[in-house]
Amino acid sequence: MRRMRAALASVCLAGVSLAALAGCAVPTGATEGPATLQPVAMGQLPGWPAAKPAEALAAFVSSCQRIQYFPPDQALGGSGIAAQLGGKAALWGGVCSAAKSVPPADNSGARTFFQTYFQPYLVTQGGSSAAKITGYYEPEVKGSATQDATNQTPLLGLPSDLVTIDLGAFDPAKAGHIAIGRLSGSQVVPYYDRFQIENGALNPNDLAVAWVADPVDAFFLQIEGSGRIDLPDGSIMRVTYAGKNGRPYVPIGRILVQEKLLAANDVTEQSIRAWLEAHPERARAIMDSNPSYVFFRTAPQLPDAAGPPGALGVSLTPGSSIAIDRRYLPLGAPVWMVTTDPVTHAPLEQMTVAQDLGSAITGPLRADLFFGSGAQASVGAGAMNATGQLYVLLPRPLASSDSTATPSS
Known about the structure:
The chain is α+β, with helices and mostly antiparallel strands and 409 residues long. It is built from 13 helices and 17 strands.
């Protein structure tokens, strides 16, 4: 689901990929390099006395229900102390058991739970705690499970000839890095780019998981990585990210500005979409200037009101789920987020849960807030483009074995 609001809000977009859509520069520290976690008292968290973390606790419990079935040594991510205290599934057993005893919608009980079982840490890198906070959402478009006279644009599934290579297996210095391509004879070559895929390199009749009417809708579904397809019979199909072609991402907002088709201070998701729809004769070439291509799979059937499944395989909760970089922070960890509301510009201080990942979410000082589904959610996600601070909450060591843990002050 990724700034100086006054200076950049009109130029840069938010979201797991929305910020990249416009080619925004990251106004915080480098995305590579070690993170430092500085312990703080719970009472030092900005806004904590007025916190209403019951909804985030419910999201945390849903993560626990998934994590409890993982092997004890299942890696959840994190580095340094984050890995030591929260990097394996077994480290969450105690706090997950305790979380289930808190009554639903009990904000007071939720506050006591977090104070009792967790130690907050301010996330910093290179001496800075300035995090980049953005937003993402789940698009909703009309389409069909099969091609028909109206729905002619395919959403492709993962091709069988796509090869993913773990570079760390060849060079430990490249651990965590991959290369994506396809076999050509005895060699691995780059996978087909967007232009090649759109012009017949892959057979959509063999790979399509759904069909939509508007190629611009299909493009933005790839930007977000998941979405809802409103089918002709009134039902909803969920599609989610299955993989990508490995080509570099080129933001088309930057292309439109470079070609003087949009003003630099008018680059938003809405303005880009409007331009593409108003210029169908040029839209395909502009979209093809981004060689990156995303493949989909159908998601498990979920209630219509449920959010899409995130990286942990549980439904995302609007306002409570965030995407993070698991090289630095573990999936499933609660994160106290301090930033600015994109609509009211008031302080936004709330508990969230790391339940998702995003290709544009890189570095420890990076979070992407999930806003929900549909057009209204897209407005908030597109406007969410701010600096802030992240405090990751890690299980206190005694929590896994001492049920009489006392709240931290």
